[in-house]
Design brief:
3-stranded antiparallel β-sheet, mainly beta, 71 residues
């Protein structure tokens, strides 16, 4: 695992930026706004939370960023 900066500016994507690299890794979002994000201590998992009821009930998603399907 590496060191990452994570951003989300829309409801469709989450971008993971490896520190020291100009390229980002784009993950597809659920369509709901992301209200909070956090990495696990080892940096392998990213937890995202959506509290928007417009897209269904509040949800939490765990993503294994080492093996995520889109790059």
């Amino acid at each position: 695992t590496g060191r990452w900066l994570v951003t989300s500016f829309s409801t469709e994507t989450i971008e993971l930026w490896p520190l020291g690299s100009p390229w980002s890794r784009v993950l597809q979002g659920s369509g709901a706004s992301i209200d909070s994000m956090a990495f696990t201590n080892d940096g392998r998992w990213l937890a995202t939370c959506s509290l928007s009821i417009a897209f269904g009930p509040p949800s939490t998603v765990l993503t294994d960023i080492c093996h995520a399907p889109s790059w």
